[in-house]
Design a protein that fits this description.
Blueprint lengths: L2 H18 L3 H7 L4 H9 L18 H13 L7 H15 L2 H13 L4 E4 L15 E5 L2 E11 L7 E7 L9 E7 L8 E5 L11 E11 L11 H37 L1 E2 L2 E2 L4 H29 L5 H26 L9 H9 L9 H10 L2
Parallel strand pairs: 1-4
Antiparallel strand pairs: 2-3, 3-7, 4-5, 6-7, 8-9
Helix pairs in contact: 1-4, 4-7, 5-6, 5-7, 7-8, 7-9, 7-10, 8-9, 9-10, 9-11
Length: 375
């Protein structure tokens, strides 16, 4: 941390307090944040923090993204899909886009004019990305895309979608390409399905997307040739998994903080809950889990800033932090008693939001397989 990051943290905290926290219940009811939230975030400079300034970004590093992620988690928000927009989509464009592509798309993402999404998962293919069936067939100067995608964060609002598709099914993983589809509002546009009814993350517009003979210019291919998509995905997934780790440890810390406040106010049998030995011991365990996880995630952030975060370590960060989040939040719910099961209490929402962290970004079982291969 330095003074620049401290100032960013204060800006992010103020933004969350003003623009997000007061509207969380409404976001959950409507299954999406307000579209204008993206514009307001862009206006104050909170989008694409780690994208170079020449493309409209903040010119910062992953440390800047981590600060914003932490403040969002501490505000108890799981609705705003900026981690995908800024931390994932923008970095595919910055890493693999041509100069023309970067100048065309990144400033729109940084301003909030565009909302970004990445379409990997399909109804029949999740962690096994080689199993995708979406096809992109070249026809002159266009690709014709056919297929369906599901569990797409920002799916309802997305103006720009990075589509994972097979350009040569006979080549297996080497036949996968990443192609950018822009929402044009025309008959040729991709279709948006329902916003999915999830157990948690109620305010996030996680949707289905359908591609029925959608025509996209060949110029929208990421990379200088077809077949690079799988390698590109593997290169970017460590940052995605570190993002999950950052959100998870911040969620652990937030859960401990809100529970400490509750047990010091709530009484039972004539005394504060905090004065019961079981309460103190449980919170001692939770605080230790938070401290140990924080130390590891901070080390991973430092490695990533130096370009040294490898795939197995990123997998460790993702599975460990998300697993600890589930354990700690569950313990905190227990200390809240019946109120911990009521959605009006932040700890209940944190509990339901936490469960999916062990699934997306590659399941924790897949993370262990990745780690085991490196041993």
């Amino acid at each position: 941390m330095d003074s620049d990051l401290d100032q960013l943290r204060q800006l992010a905290r103020t933004f969350m307090e003003k623009e997000v926290t007061p509207h969380q219940e409404r976001f959950a009811e409507q299954k999406q944040v307000d579209r204008d939230l993206w514009r307001r975030a862009g206006d104050v400079g909170l989008l694409c923090l780690s994208i170079p300034e020449e493309y409209g970004g903040g010119g910062g590093t992953f440390a800047h993204e981590a600060v914003l992620l932490e403040e969002q988690a501490r505000a108890g928000d799981s609705s705003w899909g900026n981690s995908v927009h800024s931390g994932i989509v923008a970095h595919y464009l910055n890493s693999y886009g041509s100069e023309d592509q970067k100048r065309r798309w990144l400033p729109k993402l940084a301003s909030g004019e565009y909302v970004g999404a990445i379409a990997m998962t399909e109804p029949g293919a999740g962690s096994d990305l080689q199993g995708i069936r979406t096809r992109a067939v070249r026809d002159g100067d266009e690709y014709v895309i056919n297929g369906s995608k599901t569990f797409i964060t920002n799916g309802l609002h997305a103006d720009l979608v990075i589509v994972v598709a097979k350009t040569d099914p006979a080549q297996g993983a080497q036949g996968i390409s990443l192609i950018v589809a822009e929402s044009s509002g025309s008959e040729n546009d991709f279709r948006r399905g329902r916003v999915l009814d999830k157990v948690g993350m109620k305010g996030q517009d996680t949707a289905e997307l359908f591609f029925d003979d959608v025509r996209v210019p060949v110029a929208n291919l990421l990379g200088d040739q077809e077949g690079l998509g799988f390698v590109q995905l593997m290169q970017q997934l460590p940052q995605e998994r570190l993002i999950i780790g950052v959100c998870s440890v911040a969620g652990i810390e937030a859960a401990v903080d809100v529970t400490l406040k509750y047990v010091k106010e709530r009484t039972a049998f004539g005394k504060e809950l905090m004065k019961f030995q079981n309460t103190r011991f449980k919170l001692a365990e939770c605080a230790t889990e938070a401290a140990v996880t924080r130390a590891f995630i901070d080390e991973c952030i430092e490695k990533h800033l130096r370009g040294e975060l490898d795939v197995p370590t990123a997998a460790m960060a993702k599975w460990w932090a998300s697993d600890r989040l589930g354990k700690v939040v569950d313990e905190c719910v227990q200390l809240f008693g019946g109120y911990g099961y009521m959605n009006e209490y932040p700890i209940a929402r944190a509990w339901s939001d936490a469960r999916v962290q062990r699934i997306f970004g590659g399941t924790n079982e897949i993370m262990k397989e990745i780690i085991a291969r490196s041993l």
